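Subject: Sanity check before I submit

Could someone independently write out the structure tokens for this chain? I want to compare against mine line by line before I put it in a report. The sequence has 431 residues.
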Amino acid sequence: MLKAAICTIGDEILIGQVLDTNSQAISKSLESIGVRTETMLSVGDDTDEIISGLRSLLNKHDIVIATGGLGPTKDDITKKSLAAITGTKSWHIDEEQEKIIVSMLDKRGIAHTRDNLNQALVPDSSEVIINRCGMAPITVYRLNEELFANRPVLYSLPGVPHEAIGALPDITADIRRHFSLTDIYHKTIVTFGIPESIMSDMLSDWEEKLPEDMKLAYLPDTSIGLRLRLSIYGGKREEEEARINDEFAKLVPIIGDSIYGSGNDTLESVIGDLLRRSGKTLSAAESCTGGMISARITSVAGSSEYYLGSVTSYSNSVKQGVLGVNQETIECFGAVSEQCVKEMAEGVRRITGSDFSVATSGIAGPGGGVPGKPVGTVWIGISSPDRTIARKMVFTGDRKRNVISFASNALNLLRLEIEKYTSGNTSTINN
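---
Independent answer below. Compare away.
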């Protein structure tokens, strides 16, 4: 299997001024054609660092893609560094890229300065892939064994994201023409409610029996849950897909309804699918989550089919005056209580006429905790046509993380209640 590395060049990446979206896009593009990205490296605007970093990557990988620099300013040293690495002694103007530069300058009413036109200056040792999204061409260096024993290929792309990403179809086409490729297959299932450490213990026997060529990764995320990804590098995609599906099917008896989807599924997208298929509707009454549940539900395209609305009842007066929570409930049990959150859930169902509702009331922090109700405490209420339930949970994050945890666990509890009511198939492993 081909091994690739990505090198981003520029101080702006290292100091956090610019987010490196290029590496993500490049690695996804390479994976789509069966090339495995093994290394990502960022180096600053220093000639020695660029040369040293790229030489190290070229010695260890079949393909190296460098992105950054190549602009018209005099402080750009990337092109000179590439010349040193590849042993370039002479240069020429690529006429096709020069025409594009002139056309772009004319459209913008910018003078044809030497710095601008010199972006079309390329080493004689390189091949050129025309950049139609910008001025600096993409250069390709097919390095011989005198320079690198493994004869790697180096691609140099501009750092501007729309130019680098725009070049990727041409890069992958070039790789296809010059290399023999094999498939890479990944599949991910998404789970919620079982922490990573406990999940690892539960799956230890299953994991030990996985085939040697099948790699498991645990990918936790507070909003999504815990993703489990199986990967096979090499072979035929159809066979790999069937083998991974077989392995994931073995998890259903072990972790059951903690599995809620696969691939890019989220709690809110799965809830939307359940409601859409069953023809049911949803509403929300939020206190401590401040509208986050509603925002996540409505982030799904087509949510207007099943989502009716919400009440953000942050104050007790709104809980009582709008949702109809009894004053005695708050006086006797407090706003953060089983009794209050049940009345909130039932109140918003009554107001909107929805089939299901979700409600939250808690203490996100950093203050507000009391004996028996520490910071991080949340009560979640779910009301359905059959019943109203409530669950207490306690988290230990900061305010922001607590609110995310409150919302995610509320969505998961809602998901489980909808599944029970609709008696749908909860396993989406093979979907």
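---
OP: Matches mine. For the report I'm noting this point. Confidence is low (pLDDT under 50) at residues 424-431.
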